[in-house]
Amino acid sequence: MSLAKTNYAFTLFLIGLLTLSSCSKKEKTTPQRPNILFIMSDDHAYQAISAYSDKLIKTPNIDRIANEGMLFTNACVTNSICAPSRATILTGKHTHINGKINNLMPFDTTQVTFPQLFQKAGYETAMYGKLHFGNNPKGVDDFMILPGQGNYLNPKFITKEGDTTITGYVTDIITDFTINWLDKKRNKEKPFMMMYLHKAPHRPWWPNPEKFKEFAKKTFPEPETLFDDYSNRGTAAKTAEMNLLTHMKYGHDSKISPKTIDEMGGVEPEVPSINGFNRAYSRFNEEQRKLYDPVIDSINTWFKNNWPTLNDKEKMQWKYQRYMQDYLGCISSVDDNVGRVLDYLDESGLAKNTIVVYTSDQGFYLGEHGWFDKRFIYDESFKTPLLIRWPNQIKPGTTNDEMVQNLDFAQTFLEAALIDAPEDMQGESIIPLLKGENEKWTRDAVYYHYYEYPGEHTVKRHYGIVNKEYKLVHFYHDINEWELYDRLKDPQEMNNVYNNPDYADKVKELKIELEALRVKYKDSKALDQKYINMSVKE
Length: 538
Ligand code: SGN
Ligand code: CA
What we know:
Elements (H helix, E strand, L loop, with lengths): L2 H27 L5 E7 L18 H8 L2 E3 L9 H10 L3 H4 L15 H7 L3 E6 L12 E4 L10 E4 L2 E4 L4 H16 L6 E6 L11 H8 L18 H5 L4 H4 L10 H6 L12 H6 L4 H21 L5 H37 L5 E7 L18 H4 L3 E4 L8 E3 L8 H8 L14 H4 L10 E6 L11 E6 L2 E6 L5 E6 L17 H17 L4 H13 L1
Parallel strand pairs: 1-7, 1-8, 2-10, 3-4, 3-7
Antiparallel strand pairs: 2-9, 4-5, 5-6, 8-9, 11-12, 12-13, 13-14
The structure holds 2-deoxy-6-O-sulfo-2-(sulfoamino)-alpha-D-glucopyranose and calcium ion.
């Protein structure tokens, strides 16, 4: 063999070696696609998670996600109501684009949702718990969803195999089935994307019997704005029907039986009522009633003996305590059950390659401004809890205060799973923030638009822009009112400064920015009107 030939053969051999080693290197460094466990509860206020504040309750299990990951202090929604929030999460689009403006109309299932993209990309996908769409989810290999709002006790579920009713407490049941899917049912050859969606702590707040008993004995600190008279706010706050004293229902919410109210010959103030107490109680079996009855009896006896002697302030205080006892009792079960799932991830070894997200479909009023419920752009309902754990990617125990939205979840999860997001999704992946690369984040304001009016709780239609310093809101439907809040000086949003001359320049500036956001996200007066017309026909 000539020298030249020998050299040539040697070179080929070297190239071969290098190619081989670079291939195997590539294989080794190709990231393993992470699993995603998306945990969402319904109406869980961030004020009731101890990672945010431990004034009301300790939630050690949910807190673990933040201790081992990241806590977002300015996470918010695009439209603070259940099914519209879920539609935004699944499509990565604002309400006016995905068309799910309220809880009433069914979701248009011809749209692409992120679970479909995961499924197509080889993920095993599932959805267990509350969806509230009026139709079944697409893009999931397995599902088990509550019809509509679902029930706390002995709930019915819609599954792939048909309908089934399961005896027990909803939060425990959804968790049992979630763990079973993770452990036994799924195809373990594939990464998974699991949506584990609690009904709790949605109204009418029935804790399990043990928590009902435990929490009924507790007393909770009142929010500073419990007795708000809405004096420096607009018409919308004054006309909303979500005040604890005048709109929270005796039976449905506070667990006063119709029998007690009859025996008392009625109660003041009168609150328009459905017989929600009986509706829930009639689902309980004998054994469950035995557990609930002693607590229900003691609440009712106290009420009968004391209610007529209370003044309005004391009535408000009593209703607030009853509300918190039941609401927080429900949350305590959510926390225990999240702990069970996190323990399962640890024991099974799944934790290290699983992104765990904890959030709620929106925030909630826990007596702030005298309210329960949500819907408004004001902070307690606009903001939502968000805690994310992603081992080796997120630095444990970090906090982030950027304005991220439920609109961003789809693109974030897709990027994490190395799946291309469709061009027409409207959010932004928050992965740079998760990795601590905050300088890559450019958004400084978000857009919000609420529609379900006329409707329950009578919160008027509005849209607005929110940045870290200000919130500008337009109520545009049957009133034409603007509100401006100085978020730094007035974090409780007690003073609308829209007409204050000191803020005139700010108003001008924010109006331009708001219009630019409407253009950016393709919202318009024409769409506002289209959705008003549509609701009238419903
Ligand atoms: C129910 C509740 C309302 C609540 C809506 C929407 N009333 O209708 O208080 O605002 O759900 O909630 S109740 O009498 O049925 O309890 S959402 O979370 O599904 O949007
Ligand atoms: Ca909700």
